[in-house]
User: What shape does this take?
Amino acid sequence: MKLATWNVNSLTVRLPHVLDWLRDHQPDVLCLQETKQEDSKFPYVALKEAGYNAVHVGQKTYNGVAILSRHEMTDVTYGIAGSHSVDDSDVEQKRAISAIINGIRVVCVYIVNGQAVDSDKYQYKMRWLTALTNWLESELIKYPKLVLLGDYNIAPEDRDCHDPAAWVGQILVSPPERQAFQKLIALGLHDSFRLFDQAEKSFSWWDYRMMGFRRNFGMRIDHILVSDALKNSCTAAYIDKLPRKLERPSDHTPVVLELA
DNA sequence: ATGGCTGCTTTGAGCAGA
Assistant: This one.
């Protein structure tokens, strides 16, 4: 089973890239973030023609998450459920969607960016991460086989940042963000990318500015975490950099996990 | 050097992303 995650930075613009990637890679599951579309604009028909069922929760301009699957999806959940939700504003920010696929709980998230460590958005990011962690703790009891895929907006370690010295204390790498990532790990989740040997300076996002991609000035902020029950089933994990080289690319590129 | 791109928005300067 092949699962992937990709922040497409507007599905309206990137749909051709997504369809090409589905055709070339034939994943069982592809999680998307930043669709930036209301549900009425979501391309259900084009994806169905490509062989994929889809569930989506979106909004205009910002956020928006989707799960595409070649298999049946059940138990679809929108957002961080029930009493674990962040606050009233979370109702408006479409950042999480989940489904059961082939007996696995697939959770797709677009974690808050946070903008700057001294901002209100950063405070919201930390609250959102706490709510996500609390919710996942109960999800894992119900669904021991769980995969958490998405744009985390956190580079977990210095080796996930192109220039750690220049970024010390900044957004994406600040100690509280990294501690929040470790709290997810402490639930019994594993960073699937690090279960395998990887090239140094492997990243999933590069700034559009300053020729970031060509100079490999990037960050690894898109992740696929797997629960204990799935750890031994992982057979490969990698980043596909090719879509970042396309005309009018997303600034993120797909991250992939293969399960036996 | 706090900009640099890109996408979006009651169309055009400003926000947000990371």
